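User: Fold both of these, please.

Assistant: Here is the first one.
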Amino acid sequence: MTSPKTLTIEQVVKKMRDSVDDPKFRTISAQQKALTGDSPAQGPIWVSRLELPAPPEADVVQYLVQATKELGIGGESYVIPKLESIHGEWVGHRRSADRKATEPRIPEHKKYEALMSEVQTTATLLFVHGGAFYWGSPSKFRDIPGTLSKLTGGRCFSVAYRLAPQNPFPAALLDVFVAYLSLLYPPPGSFHEPIPASAIVLVGDSSGAGVCLALLQLILHLRRQSSGTDPKIRFHGKDVLLPVPAGFAGLSTSADLTHSQHSWVANAKHDVLPLEPPPIRASQPACDIWPSTPPRGDLYCDLSAICHPLVSPTAAIDWTGAPPLRFACGEEMLADEGAVIARRAAQQGVCVEWEQFEAMPHSFVGYLTWLPETKLCFKHWADFCLNCVQNPDDMTIQGAFVGSHGNSSRALNVRKIEVPTVEEARQIMTKEAERRQHKFREQSKLKAHI
């Protein structure tokens, strides 16, 4: 068997692309089944699983629906999700364990106590995994929070949010919203004590980073509607405040579900993502969960809502009042989606850190683990999270393009990144959304006549 370290980046990219076209792996349900679920922890990592109860009040749903209406342009269609309990896992570094160490057979709360006994800083990361909204789980993405908890000396709560297409927008956003409130105000059965917002950093990979940005937009909007103060919300029998977190740090942020920005095509040749993701490609086979009932044109949302800023944060106009934001990416298809946000937020006075790695594909730290770029990306990721919690007043706007092997770095002016303005990006997105809506209607008509 070929060692991963002997493969070139191009060979890894080809191998991953070929797996998407594997006949046994083509349906949405097959991908979801293969890439979702739990597994025992192994190595120098503590994992403590738990279930957080849903609040008995409907305030969180009402606030989400209110913001969705107010931030939209009208005509967006979506199903209001029910509140459900939140599953997830606490992750921390287990210093005394080697790479072959198995998960101890002790109660989950005892694992959490052991985890906390090794925590060295107050940094708490709320991690939202990637997976294009329809696959993935905390277990499948455990390496990212495991590495970050080691480097920060803190802890991470990884959310098992509800997946599309069974649970379309805004179910995932609602789950992450409840998870954030649960960190601030622990519900019954929680292992943790209340965590101040000043110690919580939203962390996400790919689509998970997009959900984090949507949550941040939701909080910022509710704050604006509350005259610039923390809004009050009823949560588990108490009136509590909804503060802004300490920061956001995303990798390969997916923030435009129309995938219509310039980098989507310009960088496609060397990236792992398919140029036509499901369900856009005509060859996508049907299964028991897709197409949906009733049919819709996107796995995550109705096409009428695809340009909504809580679905595609690239379209968000106002980031004023946001905490420090970090965007890391490769020369990948999604690069411009985060760059539009980074530039806009920096122009509005938000502290933004932008870092792009030469020749790196989407979410490269998850599979090109031996590269110096991965080690450097993780270090800067962890440093940023720690600074958000420990030294927020010392942080500055900065951008960099990191050369091959991490041997060089060229400074970039984040306020002048060469991408469209938000207004221009919204026009591009709207045009692509209209094209997809027309195509979906024509396909629906054709199917109705067969």
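And the second sequence with its predicted structure:
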Amino acid sequence: MAPIAIFAKSRACFRLKNFKSISTFVHLHQEAELAEPHGAAPPLPPNPATGSPRYNENWRSPLPASSAGDGALIPVGLGVFQHTYGSPMQTLSQSLDAESLMNQFASWTTTQRWEDVKQLFEFWTRSLDKNGKLNKPDVNLYNQYLRANLMIGATSGELLHLLTQMEDFLIVPNTASYNIVLKAMRRDGETIAAGKLIERMLEIGKEHKESLPDHESYDQVIFVHISRGQIDAALKYIDLTLKSGCMLSLNAFVDCVRHCVNNSRLDTAVSIIERCKKNDQNKSLCLPWRLCNHMADVAMESDNSELTFYALEFMAKWIAQGENAGPPVFFSANEGLVISALGTAGRTYNSGLVDGSWAVLKRSLRQKKAPSPEAYLAKIYAHANLGNLPKAFSTLHEFEKAHGHSNHEIGQDLFSPFYSLNPLVVACTKNGFTTLDSVSSLSNYLMIELMSSKKGKPPIC
């Protein structure tokens, strides 16, 4: 390196005439020359879309890029159109037709790429197709765009704005379009707006059947009213659901009944169950097992025999379904709950509840053991209170078969007409000796009881 350095320092001493050395400096002094124009500029393509809202009145003067979002059909999201014209998203949008775009959306939906779905749709609607016209989405593509906005977190108001802009593409919103907006209203708790949107769907559906509400539409409105504690308004839409022939979803049914039970609206819960039972499509609806037990407890505390009956009826469905399952799952009603239900039936004079309660108990025991003495006595009391003496004595006969071999002291109390069977005796004497004489079974039973007592003495009262 030393000879080169010496040469560099001494080069000014022997510079030759017309000698040009190669510079060792980085920056060279250069002047660019403008290329000569080759012919005239290529002509603009023909008018791609006459009357399209994406073009000015003078289509040969397109909108500048800076104002692309001012009159756009699709509102520009934050940072969406800050990309350069050579961005991969825009390049992809120019290479897709409607079918391939839908396939791309399906692929991104599985990976939850909602922001990409939104951006690609907005770029695609601003791109030209192979015929030089703006891409025009159909209702299914637009619904994908609405769904992406919902998943990103757009408000119900923003989705409503996007819904109205479907008219610019000459698209009629279908039921799925409205359901996406209803989901946002349910999330945001917009009860009034949801009700108005259902009314709008019913109005538009008179001309366009594809816009009528379906079971999902009604479910969203029912859920949003229940979440706000507006059970009466929810009942209105339950009626609309049933009248329209749609099936009430299991979740909506369960939530409505649970809300009524938890808020002591027991008669309303009965009304909801009865309305669904009258509809053929909703007869199969069944409450969860735990809710059945809770509903029965609450109903019996209030002596609501109808709701108690429905709770036991749902429990019977669970028992039957469990036995028929593979492998079988055995559900069993608590015997104490059934005894309480029989007491409620006796106090409220509900013969259907007596039969239903006993059927659930027998199904739960599965013939492995007999019902307890308390269960038999509760059934006898219920029939006696209802004035159905033949069934009361029939139950007494079953009681004797099942527990007649108990030890002497316990049996004496269980079958004593002056103790445990006193309600039956009282029921027989309501109309004096006429009723007592007409029931020969009671007379015979009393005679047997007296003869079996010690020394022929009747039990002490």
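The first helix runs from residue 2 to 10.
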